[in-house]
Structures are given as structure tokens and as C-alpha cells.
Amino acid sequence: MSALTGSTTRLDGAVRTPAFAPPGMVRNIMTVAVRELRDAVRARWFVLYTLAFAVLGLGISYVSAVGAGGVGLSGFGRTAAGLINLVLLVVPLMALTAGAGSIASDRERGMLAYLLAQPVSRTEVLLGKYVGLAGALLACICLGLGACASVLAWKGDATHPASLVWLAAMSFLLALGMLGTGMLLSVMARKASVATGTAVFLWLCLVFVTDLGLMAGTMAFHLRIEELFALSLASPLQVFKMWSLHAVDSSLDVLGPAALYAVEEHGGSLHLIFAACMTAWIVVPLGCAAVIFSRRRIT
Amino acid sequence: MNRITAILLAGASVAICVAGVRASAQPAESHEAPVLGVSSLGDAAMGEIGRRIASAPKGSTVEIGPGVYRERIRIDRALTLVGTGSPVIDGEGSGDIIEITAPGVTIRGFTIRNTGISLDKENVAIRVLAARATIENNVLDDVLFGIDLREAPDSVVRNNRIGGKELDIARRGDGLRLWRSDNVLVEGNHFHDGRDAILWYSKGVVVRGNSAIDCRYGLHLMFSDDVRIEGNELARNSVGLYLMYSTGVEIIGNRFLQNRGPSGYGIGLKETDRFTVRDNVIAANRVGVYIDGSPFTTAQPGLFTRNTVAYNDIGFAFLPSARGNELTENNFIDNIDQVSVSGRGDLSANRFWSGDIGNYWSDYTGYDQNEDGIGDFVHESQTLFENMMDKEPKLRLFLFSPAQQAIEFVGRVLPAVRPEPKFTDEVPLMAPVEIDAMRRMGAASSRALGGAGVGLLGLGMSVLALARGSGGDRGPRRRSGRNMAEQGS
Fold it and tell me: What is the SS3 assignment for B300-360?
């Protein structure tokens, strides 16, 4: 309770100076964000996900650095492949469930009505929560991949440092997209459990069902490579993977004919295509969430 | 003073003559194919170096001092032409530069640059049309073709640096070309940004200690028999070494690195016979070794022994027609696809062990209880996704995804969908074989990687610190239970 009074005092400042509407809005968002971030990094889910991500990543890094048999050579081999695989599994799950748990559980406990009784708009609350959770995800990704890079360096692995930094940046973008999607589920769902359950189901779809479906389609309907590439752009996970690889090795030939076609056909604008897809996945769900949230009844 | 004036005058006159000849000759020549063994230099070229050569007796040494010489040179008698103080011979962006028409000529110590760009006329820096030439310690820069040996047996090409033109790969020429030139020694040269270094119909050539970077084919053999390829480094080309229709080739102690692109191979073998591939490092290529119809006959198995094949997208790629290869004591380390066979082919006609010697496989899952260095279980390659990729290369798009692992898992636990083993190694090695070519590679520095790691950790920590710092006085919020994990479990 004392905490809420605390935030009220802060938020009061915004009310007293309505002339500075945009800074006031930013300040409100940041106030909500910092509170959200603080709660998030203390929450059990954050600690568990971060530990799991770091430990699995360290395991992959250690095994691939040592398993090379001390040949002193390294390519963009199993280390990066393993890390990409790990990111694809963990980051969407973490971001989707974090987003799904944010608004819905607040509403269920009546916290949301209380929060919105303060002089903050709904959009500000939503964006504030988004920014706060995004900060927590950023911390998780940086700690996990940073630990991996340190272990790889310690074992004398020659993975290019830029590739790991780039991987971290891409992972964060993926997390942003999935977080917005999770929040969309959260504002739509009636109960927190429904939101979380839907988020896990959506994760399963994105990680397994989409790819397996595309594979089956490729085999069954003999999809042309341009069709296959276009379809795979619909999956944020595929976009993340292709973009991560493309940044490290611009030829992208490791992903076979479809990716080679993409590089030949689009060349330098491939970065723009990936960026557009990623931006769409970040902006559209969050925008929808904001619209729905501003119209829904809060009970 | 007189001499300088003479040089200037000569230079000017040569330039005028060349321009005139080019202008008048161009329309007629453009349809004319170059004729082997016949001079393509034209007669107008006679400059400072040309006059020195014209007045030198057979067998003498002609020394050329520093300076930039804009002229075409023909050497029609056995001479040693030596550049002191690195003189430059500049072709001014047209035609050929040096032509050797007599046996026993040596050219040493020049910088030769700026040929024409006509692929039709095969503009070249040095063309040799006679036997026993020695081309050494030269720098060839911005040249279409570098050194062209046409029917020039027993020649030596040594310690030259040959750089191609900044053109689209299809418009570049060959850094080195041998045409019907037997027993040539090609040693210690460095090729970059060219098309190929290529041997046509040349027997008994030794290619030793060269490097080729950013070319199309680092080294290319066409119908060239009994060639020894030793200690070369072929990196970042489209193909490192491509052998076609050649017999009796030994490939020993070379390094094939990062040869990538749509047809990126470390070593490509097309209908090549009686070959040995030994002690090489083949790493980070799109395909390490690509085997198409080799060995061509049953005279001798294709021998691959003691090679390290690591970090390639595909370690060994066999076309269905490939049969009679024998692989022993090779290290297969972390190739995404260790061995692939395309289409519906199988590998039963190739052997992955011989007697009691197998290979090292980084994906071997067995153990060695009796500690004889050989795994106690047979190594069988039977991963479902690899097989699917071999049949449908488009599926490579799904590499590195959890879905791929799901398929691998299903393949492991459900015998019904488990594929037939692609190949077996009955005596897999437990540890990689040590290889000399490997030892020569410098250890990579990991300091930058460590810096990146620490930087990422620092960023993560500072986000945490931000959260902690701003909320130190808000203890009770910890129990708010707003997050699903706290609530649910």
C-alpha cells in the first residue's frame, strides 16, 4: 500500500503540470516501467528463466568449445547453431508468458482498477508495463549470452564476437515482438490462467507447428523456393534465425537453396525485409493491445 | 639529360604508335579468335626495355633499373631479364604486356600492371610460348590474365603475387593458366581476386606452397595427369580445388578454408581417377569435399586419409554415381551434415573404414571400455533430418530450429520412421588424429570475444542495478504477487 501511495505522489507531479503533456506521458510511462522492471527482476519467473537460459547456454558453449578436440579452428558451427536453437526455444516462451501474465493477472486481483484510478492513461500503463518487462528480458538475454561469450573466450573458441553481440540484439528484438504478442493475449483474456495457457499454446505453434507445417508443405506440395521463403517470413522465429545468420555470413548459403534464392534476389535489401518483418511483429500486436485495452471494461 | 629526353621521346612515340595501331586494328581484330602459339602482341611495341633486349646477346642478363616503363615487351632470345629497385611495367589498360617466344627466358623482380580487359583476346601480363621459362619474384597487379604458359614445358613460376582486376567474376581472367605445359613447377605464388589458376592438359606439374584468396577456383585441373598439389592454402574462393577428368593426382597437406557460395566446395572431384587426398585441413566450406563420378575407374580406390574435415555445412557430399572411395583416419568434426548423398543414392559402394582403421566422428555416441582407442560400437549415421535434407535440400531452411530437433527425436524413438543407416564405420576412432597442416594454423585470439561477453554481462547487470537502485525503499512490493509464476506455481 505504501508503495502505491509513493507512486501517487510521483504521478501527482504530472497532473500539476499539464502543459508538458508529452514529457508527462513519458514520465508516467517510465514510472510504471521502473516499477514493473523492479517487480519483474525480483519475480521467481525471471530468476528461473535467466538461470535456465544461462545454464543451458553455458552447457552448449562449453561442450562445443571443448568437443572440437582442441583443433584450434572454429566456424559458425555448432556453437552458434546451438545458441540460436536455445534462443528460439527459451526467449519466445519467456516473453510470451511474461506479456500474458502482466495485464490479466493485475485485472484479476483488482490491481489494475486501482492503478488506473491514478492520473495515468491506459496507454501509459500498457506501455509502461511493456517497457519494464522489455528491460527485464534485455537483462536476461544479456546475462545469458554474455556468460556464453565469456566461457567461449575462456576456452579459446574463435567465434566472431560481432556474431554474438548481433545474436543478442536479434534475440532482444524477438523478445520485444513476443512480449507485445503476449500482452495482446493478456488484454483480450478474461482470466490470467487463460492468457498464460494461450501464450504457451501460441509458443508451441510458433516453435513447432509452423515449421513442421512448412516442412510438410514443402514435401507434399513441392513448394517453390520463393514461395517457401515468402511463407517463412511470416514466422518471427524464422525471421530472427535468418537475420542472425545473414548478419554473420551474408551469403546465407548454410540454409540451402531457399535462402540462397533470397540473397540472390533481394541482395542488400534483405536486411530491410527482415527488419520490416521484425518491426511488424513488434508494432502490430502492441498497437492492437493498446487499442483493445483502451476500450475494454476494467473490472 | 640526353638519356631522359630519349626515354620521354620513346615513351611518347610508343604511346602514339600503340594508340594508332589499336585504333586501326580494333574493328578487324574483334572477330578474330586468338591463335595458340602465334604472337598477339603486335609489332609496334619497342621502348626502353625493348631496345635493351634487342641489343642484348643470347644468354646474357639484362638489368632494368627503377622507373615506370609504359611499353610492350617481346623476348625472342634466351635472356635473363632482372628488375632492380622494383621497376614497373605498365600496360596502360590495354592489350598484353610481355610475350616470351624463345626457350630459356627468365623474368625476375618486376611489377607488371594494368593489362587490357578483353576476355576475347585474353589480355595477359606475361605470355610464354616457349619451354623452360622462369617467372619469379614478380608482382602482377590489376591484370586480366596473369601468367599464361602455352606449350611451355619445364617452366618455373615461383614467388609471384598475382592480383586480378576489380571486375565481376565472370569478366575476370585466370591468374595462372597452363596449356599443354608439362613438368612445370608452380611454387610459392599468391593469387587474389582473379578467376582461376588452371592447368589444361599438363602432365607432371607440381603445385606447392601457393595461396589463393577471393578467386573463383583456387586451383583447377582439366585433363591434367600426375599432378602433385602440396602445402597450398586455398581460402574464400568459390571452389578451393576443382579436379576434372584428371588422373593420378596427389593432394597433400593443403588447407581449404571458407570456400563458400552456391557451389562452394573445398575440394571438388569430377570424374577424376587414381587420386590420394592426405593430411589436408578442410574447414568452414559450404561443402568440404564434393565427389562426382570419382574415382572414374576401378584401378585404385579414391583414398582419403588423415584429413580434418571440420565446420563445413556438409563434410563430404557424394553424388549417387560416386563409388569406390575409401576413407580412413579422417577427423569429421562438427560438420552440420557430416556426410551427405544426394537424391536417392546410397553410399554402399564407398567405405568408411578399412581393416581395423576407421575415422573420428564428433557425433559418435559410443564409448571405449577396453581403451584401445576404438569405439566399442559401430558408428551408424542415421539421422532423420539429415536424410530429409539430402532428399529435399530446400529443408535446410529449417536448420537450427527446435522443429529440426523434434524430427531428430522422433527419428530416434520411433523405429518405424528411423531411416536406414547412411553408412557405417565399424571401428570409429575415439580421438581425432593429429595432422601437421593443423598445427601450422595459429591459435585464434579470443580477447575480442571475451570483451563482447563482458560487455553483454555489464549491460545485463546495469539493467538489474537500475531496477534495484530505484526500488530499494519499496520492500512490501515484493509480495505483490502480480506475476504468473509467483501466482501459479
Answer: CCEEEECCEEECCCEEEEECCCCCCEEEECCEEECCCEEEEECCCCCCCCCECCECCECCE
